[in-house]
Amino acid sequence: MTRETTTSARPTRRRGRWSAALLVATSAAGAVLAPNVTAFAAASHATAAPHAAPARPWAGNHAVQQAVRQLTGAGLPGAIALIRDHGRTATAASGYADVASQRPMTTADHLRIGSNTKAFTATLVLQLVAEGRLSLDDTVQHFLPGSIHDGDLITVRQLLNHTSGLYPFEQDPAFSAPYLRGDARYYWSPKRLVALANAHTPLFAPGTKFSYSNTNYILLGLIIEKVTHHSYQHELQRRIIHPLGLRDTRLPVRSLTIQSRAVHGYLLGQSGGTPKDITSAISPSTTWAAGALTSTVNDLARFDRALVTGRLLPKAQLAEMMKAGPYKVDAADPTKSYGLGLERIQLCGVTMWGHTGTVLGTQTNAFTSADGTRQLVLTANADPDTWTTGQVSAWLTTARQTLCAK
Hints:
Number of strands: 13
Largest sheet: 9 strands, antiparallel
């Protein structure tokens, strides 16, 4: 299998991301063991979403159902996939959204989309650039004086493309302390998260390297609020969610639960083979503008398609968003690069833009071709840091079985 079909849909495994705190907590109690790959092999419930029937049979309909069944057959609790190919769309779900109640996963279920939120945040910033209310070359100091060290050297662009060098706040021991004590509702304000990062020396001089850091997008959320004089949530609703009719996309920052028919997220490999439900283990305030959105695969696909086809940004700002930086962002995939809140990958010979997101036991990848005609959204409700090699392999091969189907 070629690199294009094996690495492009690769789940993210970023060192130091907040969910590592949960892994540390459970491993300290001796609970993290080798994942049980057969726990859900027989528990596959695949359903295709209604769509207009094409004039001739389309292999994509079968491929998307086979793909999600393969994921749950490999031992992942549940999976949802959406593919679009020049006007033809297929979605399918398999396995369980809630293991305890054995509620089947459906294509309409709500889920945490993690760092896919960054594409929304970046879009808001680029809209403000288009309106002349800020510049990509403006510094953090200009908007948030005194908020971070060397704020006069770090630009908005460097926050967007993760070249600021700012320390990831989630790696500070104080960040995870409340959750290790069992206080899942502990609320971190955006400014306090920035303060955690600011207590550490930057990783490198601004603009000299790439290092993925949620600190960047917390600062961007604060800049959006400073410039607009409205909350981040208000601008998100006014500028993106309402205009696109994203009825199932929300920002639950203080609530541990999300809207009804929620997908539960899990750590695999627990004692007795039972996954550990971490859906509400940590306050979503920890990710805010960097990763707190909840949505559905259909809403996420609609947003991505609207973005890359120019419905949300003028051509100049969209072009800036798609300027991939010169630095390597993934040692396992040399074709992958990062723009301004968007990842660029090669999939089935097609250049695609989107993002990946891992949060509270859910992994979601969403990518769209620049012309909006090809799309892949894939989600599974288990933290990839607890996947077996076989489960990773099953995830990687779904690209060939879905988007590449003809």
